[in-house]
Amino acid sequence: MIRFYRQFGFLLALPFMAGLAFAQATTQAPAPGPQQPALQLLDTLTGSTSDTIIQSLVLITLLSIAPGIAVMVTSFTRIVIAFSFLRTSIGLQTTPANLVMISLAMFLTMFIMAPTFDQAWREGLQPLMEKRISEAEAYDKMTDPFREFMLKNVQEKELVFFQNMAAESSFGTEASERDLRILVPAFMVSELRRGFEIGFLIALPFLIIDLVVATVTMSMGMMMLPPTVVSLPFKVLFFVLVDGWTLLIGSLVRSFH
What we know:
Blueprint: H1 2-28, H2 47-64, H3 66-73, H4 76-90, H5 98-129, H6 135-153, H7 156-168, H8 180-219, H9 227-241, H10 244-254
Helix pairs in contact: 1-2, 4-5, 4-8, 5-6, 6-8, 7-8, 8-9
């Protein structure tokens, strides 16, 4: 994990390093003469400088869409849905705060996805930075670990559904299950389904507590007392006594292959 954090921090610094290299390359290029057209300035740039510009743009683009990628191809979706169901089932609207829940979901995602990230770094991004492989080969090597992770956790029903839709659309019949156009939406729908299944199991015991409290208050003639006022402390106490956070997090981590 420590190695992964170092690699992730180094990845964040890459756009700034690329910008510095580009600035140095442009300052070393010969300045145009007084009568030289502006378009001829592009001819003074070397091929390595052009590669640096392209890599810098690609890295900045990847960093800008990193939250979307984290939702699409990682375990983040299932975890955050389970946390949302937990908070709603207990009856706490703002506790834990959204920042706490999102942060915990992100670190759990990094914990679960660490082997995948490390493999993508070792086999794809690091050789690309060292100029040992091309951009196309690096793309395949960086996406292969995520494809394997999604294939292990996606449900066959969703894969078949999107493959059938692709066969009826402009994708044609050549789209395989490893195609990201098929695999990513199938994985997301599968994660939404499993997240709601986990949410049902989370909400069920708290629903029983609400029903018991409502029955007792109604039998005692407390018509004007909302049952949630009485059931909330019991639900919180029940969750604490069963060590709910450890139980939920352990179940979420073990639910991924």
